[in-house]
Design goal:
This protein is an alpha/beta fold. 41% of the residues lie in helices and 20% in strands. The chain has one domain: Vaccinia Virus protein VP39 (Rossmann fold, 3-Layer(aba) Sandwich), CATH 3.40.50.150. Strands 3-2-1-4-5-7-6 form a seven-stranded mixed beta sheet, with helices on both faces.
Length: 229
């Protein structure tokens, strides 16, 4: 991560595959309808709830932005917690699916915006908490650093993300999955990378949870800006 790079610029290209209607409409079905997918979903949401409970003991969360919201899997969960929610994604097709999902669930008023996570056209300190899930595994460490820095900019206090933690075990799992022709996480995050990315973004780690320890590398991180009470 280059400190000379303007954090308000767009330094990276986006995967345009996420803008496909077919990808958006079949995304959840391919990932979260199997037994393993349902267990993953439940465990991850429990970890997210735990992190939010920790944050809310420090400072109230009313307004929340869910970036790279995709089809709204996590957005729906956040809306049911009662937050004033804004969903952002660079794919209009993903936003269309997310909007239909939340409207069907009756979660109330939610704002949907087409936004670039590297350059969110919103004021600084606009939301109490900014989240992004199932995004960082598609980004390099440099890209994650820039995304975190922009998320920190528009957050008043908290940032909530997940990464796929690099370990001997999980790296072996990824190799086996590739050999079997199955999907494997593109990028993982070492602890050194996480520390460097947080330092670049001006964030500190408050809580780290492995929703399914020993099963996969998913790691939910609650982060906080350096604020003065």
């Amino acid at each position: 991560m280059s400190k000379s790079t303007d954090p308000g610029s767009q330094p990276f290209d986006h995967n345009t595959g996420w803008k496909s209607r077919s990808v958006a409409e079949h995304y959840d079905g391919r990932r979260f309808t199997s037994l393993g997918g349902r267990l993953f979903d439940k465990a991850e949401k429990h970890a997210i709830a735990t992190c939010l409970d920790v944050a809310e003991k420090i400072s109230p969360i009313d307004e929340m932005l869910d970036l790279a919201c995709g089809t709204g899997r996590i957005s729906e969960f956040l809306a049911f917690r009662g937050y004033q929610l804004t969903c952002g994604d660079i794919s209009d097709e993903m936003l269309r699916v997310a909007k239909a999902r939340l409207e069907s669930a009756g979660t109330g008023n939610t704002t949907f915006l087409n936004v670039d996570i590297y350059k969110v056209e919103l004021p600084s300190a606009r939301f109490d908490c900014v989240s992004a899930f199932r995004l960082f595994q598609h980004l390099t460490s440099e890209q994650r650093g820039h995304a975190l820095r922009e998320m920190a900019r528009i957050s008043r206090r908290f940032v909530l993300v997940n990464v796929m933690h690099s370990s001997t075990y999980y790296d072996a799992v990824r190799k086996i999955r590739r050999v079997l022709g199955r999907y494997a996480t593109r990028y993982t995050s070492t602890q050194d990378e996480v520390d460097r990315e947080l330092g670049y973004a001006g964030l500190k780690l408050l809580k780290s949870i492995f929703p399914q320890p020993g099963f996969n590398g998913n790691r939910v991180l609650l982060l906080e800006k350096d604020v003065k009470d």
